[in-house]
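Lab notebook, page 48
Experiment: co-folding of the full assembly
Goal: obtain a model of how the components sit together before planning crosslinking
Operator: M.T.
Materials (sequences as entered):
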Amino acid sequence: MSDVKFVYFNVRGLGEPARLILHHAKVDFKDERLTHEDWPKLKPKTKTGKLPFLEYDGHTIVESNAINRFLARKYNLAGKDDYEGALIDGIADVQKDFYAAVAPWLYTLLGFRQGNPADLKKEHLDDSLARFLPMYSNFLKEAKSGFMAPSGLSWADFVITEFLITLLNVEPKVLDGHDDIKQYLERVKNVPQLKEYYASRPDSKN
Amino acid sequence: MYHKKRRKARSKNKNKGGRAKKENICLKKKIWLQKVKLAYFDGRGIAEPARLILHFAKVDFEDFRFTHEQWPEIKPKTKTGKAPYLEFDGHTLVESYAIFRFLARKYGLAGKGEYEEALVDAIADIQKDFRTSVSTWLYVKMGYRPGNADELKKPHFYDAVETYIPLLLNYLKESKSGFLAPSGLTWADFTVSEFLITILQEESTILDKYPEMKEYLKRVKSIPELKEYYSSRKE
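Observation: model returned without errors.
Model output:
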């Protein structure tokens, strides 16, 4: 179905979960990756001046989690019923908070913002890891499926693991002492439908 | 003979009483299972949209409001140490927007069809970003976080208003329904309007540049199903 087009920068960032959902479902889509030079021209033509956006059957959808949820519902990665759907939504929102808490340090480290990452590390990385990783361990324990939701793989697993990959890229020891989460990350990266994509996809630090 | 008769009579009564008792238990279980309880602090905060959805749909629910003194006792018993949480038919849900979306889908306030649902989700996420930006200033001003509120006010309050209100106005204009989504009222209207009330409380003139936004807020607060709740609740 070539009337599916996903537009984002050429990084994993907040767009990769959508790509993973589409690859997992073997959807034929256009994976448009913009350079930072292309973007200023396109930006005023977009709905909200932000990326990613998804074109699907003539409709345009914005906001990464709205896109992720829309695709996940279409392709069976949104839980088996409304309760599980809400659980997954909640876990993805927890992940959003984790991301927001770490971002001030991460953005200065990656050069997106001015500042000294060393000054921000304790409050934004260390404290956030202490707050959020135990929550993820709990979700995993309760789910008993090896993934965040009881019925198995869902889009929440993609938003979480992509961020963990980013953290490991910049700080390789972040998951030390959290073997359950290390194993969880490996498990997601070994999902059969995605092995090929994970092995061949363009990599990026963030 | 008498004893046999009595035994038969007793067993007859037992069956009658037993069946009624079973039905009674099933009914009690059903009522318990249908129980809806929203737990949050005693204020609008980030949970008010859930109360609005439930009041709009005339759902009989327990509006459990706890004090800041009670919270340390309740916190460890929650899933993620945060509020609000929702108990619904024996399930516990956490995270405010997940709760809003769940309730909205149950009570017809999530948008019509998958594309409109995605639109409503997107507007709510934009609203969340708006709130996050303003909170950077507001939490400092209220003393919840250290920092210089005066320095943060322009980038996180005034500039945020200039960035996000026009985006929300665009959605209003495009929808043509008077609400944010084309089909009419949705849960995104509750998240947006509650936040508009909050920023107006901080600065009553903040929306003077945006009269359509003020009209929109009036429109949401005049929804017939909610007039009574809006007039009786404390803001």
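Interpretation: The two ends of chain B are 75 Å apart (CA to CA).
Next step: discuss with group before ordering constructs.
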